[in-house]
Design a protein that fits this description.
single chain; mainly alpha; 3 helices; elongated
Length: 102
């Protein structure tokens, strides 16, 4: 019979828990926030969305890592601003193609 694995020790909180030890959640958060910048949102939005999901999975697998709020901000902002930037880019390209001054 195998002995039970030792319980995982919780690392000390950084800044009182404001900055999680969840790398994917932090990447999602910052990419999601900066995805509102025109044209960058087309790239950063999907990155934030994917890393937000990875951040939620990391928190579920290792609860002491936290970062759920950061992950959700990345998912929501990345998805929203990514779609808005993509739509704006499509509208701009269509307007450019229909321009009579070509």
């Amino acid at each position: 019979m195998n002995p039970a694995p030792p319980p995982q020790q919780q690392p000390p909180e950084i800044l009182g828990g404001l900055i999680p030890r969840n790398g994917p959640a932090l990447v999602a958060y910052y990419c999601g926030i900066f995805s509102f910048i025109p044209c960058l949102g087309v790239i950063l939005g999907p990155v934030a969305f994917v890393f937000g999901i990875l951040g939620l999975k990391t928190e579920k697998r290792e609860p002491f890592r936290k970062g759920g709020v950061h992950s959700w901000i990345g998912i929501i902002c990345g998805g929203l601003f990514g779609v808005i930037n993509l739509a704006g880019l499509v509208v701009w390209l269509v307007a450019l193609a229909a321009s009579p001054h070509r």
